[in-house]
Amino acid sequence: MSAKTPLGYRSHARALLALGVPLIGSHLAQMLLHVTDTVMLGWYGVTALAAVVLGSSAFFIVFILGSGFGIAVLGMVASALGAGDTTQVRRDTRMGLWLSAFYGVAVMPLMWWSGPILLAAGQQPEVAALAQDYLRIAGFGMAPALLIMVLKSYLAAFERTQVVLAITLFSVGLNAAINWALIFGNWGAPELGVQGAAIATLSVQIAGAGLLALYAGLQPALRQFELFHRFWRPDWQAMVKVFRLGLPIGLTGLAEGGLFQASALMMGWLGAAALAAHGIALELAALTFMVHLGLSNAATVRVGRADGARDTRALRDAAATATAMSLAFAAAMVALFLAVPEFLVALFLDEGKPGSAGIIAFGAKLLAVAALFQMFDAMQVMALGLLRGVQDTRVPMWLASVSYWLIGIPASYLLAFPLGLGGVGLWFGLVAGLAAAATLLMARFWRGRLAA
User: Fold this and answer.
1) Is 390 within 8 Å of 303 (Cβ atoms)?
2) Is 160 left (phi over 0), alpha (psi -120 to 50) or beta?
3) What is the mean pLDDT of residues 323-349?
């Protein structure tokens, strides 16, 4: 144990909030980018909206695998800073940038020839063609989007999260302005519809990557790390380390994403109204999840720094404080979801339209299940953040995959269909998968890593 004076829980809480609040804001702002695209394309046309929803979903599936390298950098840089190793900070971040760029280029053929893939998946020809038009432009943004992930992690490890929030908010405004001009042909611009939305997305990703790189390279306190000095030189040892840590993180993200994609597919078997209620309930759950994700990111930094400094007391206290804060917020959301579920679901609907009453009633039932869902979802993402802080990613990948795919998805199907519980049973299956992940991952951190 370190001989340093230990911080109190209140000090850890203040540090976590100082780090986490801007990260929570940036995650929510990132969601707002998607909401802006959805709203504007909904104004433009139903087919255009369907195409971009399909295209952006395909983009995200490919993106989430590559994002593991950027997420890995968060814990690695935090640990190197805790150990006082400035050279390792530069090595790990550079190779994270290299791997992200390579991945972005390597997946471009999937974007370019996405039309036949979407047709083979049973999509309508007109929608698949428009989605391909979108991805042939937006696909060039894969590398910049992944570079943003790495640079955000680098800056967050230095506890410079305010700039991350500021640039994300700027991106929201820029995206809305370019969408308004190029989707509809306003301000003298050509009317490009789906392609206009793709250009807006690409522009925002390039601008965000450029601004973050400028800040990381020119900010006076960060210049000593010389992040971009002789950037062209490979560092194979660091690259292998980032790859080995980052790939399991990306695969874990795919496994979790697959759980929710499968739930949407199965809910669709129950009808359009059930699927609409499912989407609204998930959107509400996703909003609260951004808080837990931001706290998890902050915990990765605090635990990573303590781990690098070999300060076991600080590591334990930071982990316990972050977990308690996440649970407290989850408890507040449980109370909200149980108190006014109909009101929350109705915020997403025009109550005067036919069918809205049924969606609200069913959505309220799903939110009751989501109240239980909250606690386990909070704990699984927190556990992943803590484990990434100590650079433990391979075993957690398997634990998460088993929980989501061998427990969550089968339980959802069994409860919803053979046992006849319908959509509510399907959501209890999600709870089962998340509960298994939360239990196994927390046990991995507290009884595995900290047993000594």
Assistant:
1) yes
2) beta
3) 89
Let me know the angle formed at the C-alpha of 343 by 338 and 347, rounded to the nearest 5 degrees: 130
Q: Give the span between the Cα atoms of 138 and 52, in whole angstroms.
A: 10
Residue 332 pLDDT > 90, yes or no?
yes
pLDDT digits over 107-117, tens only? 999 999 988 98
Helix, strand, coil: what percent of the chain each, to 5?
A: 85, 0, 15
How far apart (Å, rounded) are the C-alpha atoms in residues 275 and 270? Answer: 7
Same domain, 415 and 325: yes
The number of folded domains in the chain is 2
User: Does 301 score more than 60 pLDDT?
Assistant: yes
The token duo for 69 is 């390298």
In terms of domains, do 31 and 173 share one?
A: yes
Which range of residues forms the domain containing residue 393?
248-452
Q: What pTM was estimated for this model as a whole?
A: 0.86
- Contact yes or no for 154/77 (Cβ under 8 A): yes
151 and 205 co-located in one domain: yes
The answer as to whether 104 is a domain residue is yes
